[in-house]
Structures are given as structure tokens and as C-alpha cells.
Design a protein that fits this description.
With about 325 residues, the chain is mostly helical. The chain starts with 15 loop residues before the first helix and ends in a 5-residue tail after the last helix. The chain has 14 helices and 2 strands; from the N terminus they run ααββαααααααααααα. The relative contact order is 0.12. α3 crosses α14, α5 packs across α8 and α8 crosses α10. The chain has 2 domains: about 50 residues; about 240 residues, Orthogonal Bundle (MetI-like fold), CATH 1.10.3720. The protein has a two-stranded antiparallel ribbon with strand order 1-2.
Length: about 325
């Protein structure tokens, strides 16, 4: 022990030029990624200044201070879109996550490997369809005309007296939207939970069987607790993206259901391109900036929650 080297010796770092030369190929590979991030993420941030101006591409931007935000907060359509964004995103997240957990548990209990793989493939396939294709398919299936398969089945069974326009009535649009999202996105969620289930030690199940535990007892006391951390992580990570809802709502909405289907991203789109006159880019930029600020707050909240749950943040 007397000849042990001291532990407080600091190893000097190599000069920056030597380190750059040593890892030159890594830095060279990083240049395209850095350029992409600068061009498509940081450069557009310069446009934030337009949210404090009145700008319509015809004349130079006129600085108006916070007038665009005052206008923004006084618009009832904006608050309706803001509420719809939060409601649709959060409920969709909870439903999709819950259904993904249920399907993962069912798949995990399957003994026949071929049947299990077939079921997994069928569940995964909708995720790879574009939202445009998915919307077209459901517009046809849910049509109130004779071409609508779902309405024809309900009529034959005597459940309804006349066809229902599921995507054209405010009272039906929201639940229909949730069902379509579950059909399309649940398969991808099962990939994450199936990976978590595969990491559970089979010896734990064997020990539970020896102790006389049944299938439901093992699922309740072993499988679900093992999935708990993954479920919370998925919820936390996806909660930070609730303000980015656009494509799924855009392709399924129409004029008859705008009170339920309008979200912030589509509100910005219509204010910019379907305003009926010369669009005020200053106003739509202000809406986008407000959305980004709310999204940033959600990310910070989720990062704090992630540190509490996982011991590390998401950013």
C-alpha cells in the first residue's frame, strides 16, 4: 500500500489541434448534420421577429409590438383550436398507450409462435400507411351512402334506421377520430412494450408458477409492474409533442365539424392559405410562436417528470 500511486494526479488533456486531427473523420461526418440543423432548425427562427409586425408580403413589415398577440387572445376561434389541440392530443395519447399495453400483454401470452408473428404483422401494418390513404379508406367505410360498409352493416342489424355521417357530424367526429388513431398508431406502440416484456427474466415466471400463481396473478404482479416504468416513460416523452398535432386532424376534418376538429396547426394553415384575402403572416407567426412557447413549457415539465421517474431527463 505504501507504493500505491497517488489518486489525485490529473492527466493533462491533449491540445485541441491534436484532438481535431485525431478525430477529423468524425467531425467531417458531422458537418452535413450540423448544416441540416442550422438551415432547417435555427435559420427559420429568425422569422420570429414577424410575430411583432404586420406583414403580408406586399409591403415591408410594420412593427406593431404586441398587437398581434392581443388580437390572438381575443379570437374565439383560436381558443377553440387551442382547447381541441390539448383535448385530442392528450386523450389520443392515453387511449393509444392503453391499447398498446393491452395488445402487448395479449401478444406476450400467445404460445404459438407463428400465430403471434402473424398477429404482430397485422397490428403493425396500419402504422406504415400514410394518413392520406387512411383517411380515404375510412371516408369510404364510414360513408352514410350505400358505399359505406359500416353503415350498411348497422342497418342490416337494425341498430340504426338511417346512415350516420360519422366524419361529418360534430357529435360523432371526435370518437371516430380516436378509433381511427387507435387503429393506425397502436401497432407501433406495441413494439416498445413488447421489447420491455422480452427483457423480463423467465425465471421470475417459473418461480411464480412454483408458488402456485395463475396466469392473471403473474400478469398483475410481475408483468404490469415490469411495464410500469416503460409506460410512464412513453407517456412523458409523448406528452411533450401534444402541440404538434396536424396531419391526422387535417385529413379527417371538414367544414361541418370545424368546431371539434380545428387544431392550432390547421388554424395556422387556414389563416395563412385560406383566409379569403391577403394573409397576415405576422398574425400566423404570432400563433406559431405561442404554440412553440406552450410546447417548450410542456417539454420542460416532461423533462422534470422524466428526471423524477427515470433518473435522467429527455433533453
Amino acid at each position: 500500500m505504501e507504493n500505491a500511486p497517488p489518486t489525485n494526479i490529473k492527466i493533462p488533456k491533449k491540445p485541441l489541434s491534436i484532438r481535431l486531427l485525431k478525430y477529423k473523420w468524425f467531425y467531417l461526418m458531422f458537418i452535413p448534420v450540423l448544416a441540416f440543423v442550422i438551415v432547417f432548425y435555427y435559420t427559420p427562427m429568425v422569422g420570429i421577429r414577424y410575430s411583432f409586425t404586420k406583414y403580408n408580403l406586399i409591403r415591408d413589415p410594420v412593427f406593431v409590438g404586441l398587437d398581434q398577440f392581443k388580437r390572438l387572445f381575443s379570437m374565439p376561434n383560436f381558443w377553440s383550436a387551442f382547447y381541441n389541440t390539448l383535448k385530442l392530443s392528450i386523450v389520443k395519447l392515453l387511449l393509444n398507450t392503453g391499447m398498446a399495453v393491452v395488445l402487448s400483454l395479449l401478444l406476450h401470452e400467445m404460445v404459438n409462435l407463428k400465430t403471434k408473428k402473424l398477429a404482430q404483422t397485422i397490428i403493425y401494418l396500419p402504422h406504415f400507411l400514410s394518413w392520406v390513404v387512411a383517411a380515404s379508406v375510412f371516408q369510404l367505410l364510414l360513408s352514410p351512402t350505400t358505399a359505406g360498409l359500416f353503415n350498411q352493416v348497422l342497418l342490416k342489424l337494425g341498430i340504426i334506421d338511417k346512415g350516420i355521417y360519422f366524419l361529418g357530424k360534430s357529435s360523432w367526429w371526435t370518437p371516430t377520430y380516436y378509433v381511427i388513431n387507435i387503429w393506425k398508431d397502436t401497432g407501433w406502440g406495441t413494439v416498445i412494450f413488447m421489447a420491455a416484456l422480452s427483457a423480463i427474466d423467465p425465471g421470475v415466471y417459473e418461480a411464480a408458477s412454483i408458488d402456485g400463481a395463475g396466469r392473471w396473478q403473474k400478469m398483475w404482479h410481475i408483468t404490469l409492474p415490469a411495464l410500469a416504468a416503460t409506460i410512464l416513460t412513453v407517456l412523458i416523452l409523448n406528452l411533450a409533442k401534444v402541440m404538434n398535432l396536424f396531419e391526422s386532424a387535417f385529413v379527417l376534418q371538414n367544414d361541418a365539424v370545424m368546431d371539434k376538429a380545428q387544431v392550432l396547426q390547421t388554424y395556422i394553415y387556414y389563416q395563412t392559405f385560406n383566409s379569403g384575402g391577403i394573409p397576415d403572416y405576422g398574425y400566423t407567426t404570432a400563433v406559431g410562436l405561442f404554440k412553440s412557447i406552450v410546447g417548450m413549457i410542456l417539454v420542460l415539465v416532461c423533462n422534470y417528470a422524466s428526471k423524477k421517474v427515470r433518473g435522467r431527463g429527455i433533453v
